[in-house]
Amino acid sequence: MINSASDNQSEEQWLRRGLRDLTAFTSLPLLCKDKSPREIANILASVLQSTLRSDFVFVRVTGPFPEKPIDVACAARRYAKVDARKISELVAPFLELESGALGVPNPVGPGELQITLSPLGFLNEYGVVVVGGSRANGFPTTTDRLLINVASNQVATVLETVALQISERELQAKAQSQQRLLETVLEQLPCGVIIANPPRGDILLKNAQATDVLDSSAGQPDRQTLLDLEVGFRAGGQPYEAKEWPLARTVFNGEVVKDEEFEYVRSDGERRYIVANSAPVRNDRGELIAGVVALQDITELRLTQQRLLLKSEDKYRDLIDLSPDAIFIVDSEGKYVSGNPAALELVKCTELELSGMPVINTYLPEERGSFQLQFEKLKTEAIIRFERTFLRTDGTTVPVEVSASQVRYGHFQTVVRNISDRKRSEAALEKAEEALRKAQADLAHVSRVTTMGELVASIAHEVNQPLGAIVTNGHACVRLLSREAPDLNKSLEVIERMISDGMRASEVIKRIRDLLHKAPPEKAPLNINETVQEVIALVSSDVLRSKIELGAELAADLPPVVGDRIQLQQVILNLILNARDAMSEVRTQPRELLITTLKNKSGDVVVAVRDSGKGLDAKDAERIFDPFFTTKSEGLGLGLSISRRIIEAHGGTLWAKPNEGKGATIQFILPPSSGSES
Ligand SMILES: Nc1ncnc2c1ncn2[C@@H]1O[C@H](COP(=O)(O)OP(=O)(O)O)[C@@H](O)[C@H]1O
Ligand SMILES: [Mg+2]
User: Fold this and answer.
1) Does the Cβ of 574 fall within 6 Å of ligand 1?
2) Which bound ligand lies closest to the C-alpha atom of 577?
3) pTM for the structure as a whole
4) What CATH number is associated with residue 231?
5) Of 326, 538, 581, 613, which one is least surrounded by beta carbons within 10 A?
6) Confidence class of residue 233 from pLDDT cuts 50, 70 and 90?
């Protein structure tokens, strides 16, 4: 090696050698071209060793290479055998060194050597170079170091390129295997898949099933974009717009399409049923980068369904023919298309006559207006039901119940049931009910008359009394007027008394007549207090004779109730007379009868008749309302049962309960007339 140039010749020699070495190193990249990392390491080691005539060169290559680390070594020829592994073991402790020289035991022979290190790559990314030489030769000189650095840098650049190529190849391989994976998955799927990307809808990927679903006709050139897709025709014969396609809507508008079914006619005229699902694919920034559509051919399924339907229609044919109900098919213009045997029987015509007959012909002229209404309603509603009169071709009529619904192709089916029997029994039932109502009314009347019979004595008394007074006053009047000087003033007074007595008597008679009068019930708003008072007037003398103390506490704020005055009077009269009877046996304590009216919390009107009579057993509280239940020798046992029916017919309830002390309270509540509800 060169120590110092003391003379011009040696300086020139040194320069020339240095330049030659540098030039040799700049050709290193060329030497290493297309070589493997190991080959590159070997080239570097041998070039460095021979150029510098060093004892040994050790190169360790690391980095993104499949084989690593790669250790190679090269030694001066005087050393017999070079083992890169042994060298690497010996220099390993010094590999972390920054730079500079270091004395170490000679790894290839006896004695000691100076070593110097140079990184491969700026941060040792590609490894390290170790050069060993003898100190005696002045190793390493500045020039040695410079040359080692230049060579390392050159090789690092080459390694960098190789590394880049490798990672690119890896990426490519990865992408390819992913693509293969995707393709395999798509081929395995039981549906057609097309992937396209915006903005033009270029088709990125399409599996064979997709081609199959859309058009199996061979030799069709592959479509480039979505809009080039030949998308077939609708069931109606209209071509589909490419833009209407689920995938197009996804790619162009980002729409998600869920289970959309459409009919699709191929170029060869074959009809397919397809279900599409499509969804957009977005990147991290939410931008639309692709759209995926899955197409499922459900033609087989649909055809099977249709076949089953036809089969079941065949099966139902018998049922329809056997049906006792008339079943018609009606077209969109309201004309009969066909009907089952029961239908022909109903209309009284042949199948031929039925076909094309307007349904409206089977309506009574006065009911034809309703036909249009029902027909319109049928177009928007799933099913409609109504009753009407069916006019047959022979002019007779039948009451029917119709159920109609839409079927396919704008046709309707109607099931028409003859309901004459039902109508007849309804009428019979109504008649029976009417008879029952009449019987009940008669019974109520009989009971009223009977009750009045009980009052005859006291009523006679009440009428007799004013009549007697009239007679007495008449005599008095005659006397007054037959005087020589008739006392006209006094006579007038007496006559006025007679008039008022006469009115009192006729008042009593009128009340009795009212009660005995047999008139159909008539409901009107009334104040229950007035009704109570009318009854009290009627019974007061009877009650007085029975030594009963009659009290009335009538609330002033009662709302009116809607009712039949006579019927309600009958109820109250019954309750009062029952109370009187219940007290007739009581001799040891006061006979007290209290009639109360009030408005309860829910706004209903309550009427209670409370007595201090013999009272009720708990078990009798309900039984006394049974018809013919009586404990009286002369009793009919109808009063309370009729009263309860009357109150219930007024929307109220009537019940009895024993008093805490003596006697019982029978009471009823009536709802207020709706006009007065608050
Ligand atoms: N206020 C009452 N206290 C005790 N028992 C009563 C009272 N009201 C009715 N009853 C009982 O209910 C029975 C049935 O009454 P009702 O139907 O009016 O028929 P009748 O008065 O003809 O017996 C009476 O016989 C009586 O035993
Ligand atoms: Mg009675």
Assistant:
1) yes
2) 2
3) 0.43
4) 3.30.450.20
5) 581
6) low
The residue type at 68: K
What's the pLDDT tens digit per position in 294-312? 988 888 887 887 777 667 7
Distance 573 CA to ligand 1 centre (A): 13
- Determine whether the shortest distance from the Cβ of 102 to ligand 1 is under 6 A: no
Number of domains comprising the chain: 5
Ligand 1 centroid to residue 586 C-alpha, Å? 15
Separation of alpha carbons 118 and 121, rounded Å:
9
Q: Are residues 507 and 529 in the same domain?
A: no
Q: Does 579 contact ligand 1 (Cβ within 6 A)? A: yes
Closest atom of ligand 1 relative to the 640 alpha carbon? 17
Q: Indicate if 67 and 162 belong to the same structural domain.
A: yes
Angle, helix 420-482 to helix 565-584, in steps of 10 degrees: 70
Domain range for residue 427? 422-520
One DSSP character per residue, 156-186 reads HHHHHHHHHHHHHHHHHHHHHHHHHHHHHHH
Please name the helix (run of DSSP H) or strand (run of DSSP E) that holds residue 281, with its range, or none.
strand 271-282
Q: Tell me: the pLDDT tens digits for 401-444?
A: 999 998 766 688 999 999 999 999 999 999 988 888 887 777 77
The CA 615 to ligand 2 mean position distance, Å, reads 14
pLDDT at 388 over 80: yes
**Residue 629 alpha carbon, nearest atom of ligand 1:** 14
